[in-house]
Amino acid sequence: MPKQYTFPTLYDEVLQLSITNLKEWGYLEPQQQKRGVLTWSRNGNKIGSISIVINMNTDVPYIRLDYKYGDEPRNYKIRLISLPSNLRKGKIWYFLCPQTKKCCRKLYLVGGYFLHRNAFNGCMYETQTYSKKWRNIERVYGAYFDQDKYFSEINSKHFKKYYNGKPTKRYLKLLSKIKQIENVDHREIELLMIN
After folding, report:
1. Average pLDDT, the chain
2. How far apart are CA 6 and CA 13, in angstroms?
3. pLDDT-derived band at 190, boundaries 50, 70, 90
4. How many CA within 13 A on the CB side of residue 148?
5. Pairing relationship of beta strands 72-84 and 103-104 according to DSSP bridges
């Protein structure tokens, strides 16, 4: 009897709640309480939405999530914790996962609740599901397939190529990827596509 297929839940495909996005949208301003609706979409189609309330005007800041998972209503709080920046300029905000009690910058919706990734069993990132052969192809030719991303990033409006007269690490990394692309033989790519 053949082994049953096991398709893991992929962190890349589930809904994610990110501190970075909340800060960008102005939810983490000090001494305020703000409400809003977060909506996720894929290929132009809405795939989910939740109502949030973030209270930063209290001794214990929190985010309250209100949504339906299937037909079940969910309404719960997640504490927000701040730690001083290692640059000594301001604070870095984190979620405190209600289940694992770990600080994190992203929460994933698996099984009905937004939690830290260690709270789930059998979940993986997409790259962890690639075969060994595909990982070797990605290592050798990955830069070729991602070249549009590299060129658009290097030519984006606010990309810093130099800081204090020296090239930035990100700029040097992108230049090395672009150099890798130039060294790829296009006939090898065509052979890969045929096989």
Report:
1. 87
2. 16
3. low
4. 1
5. unpaired
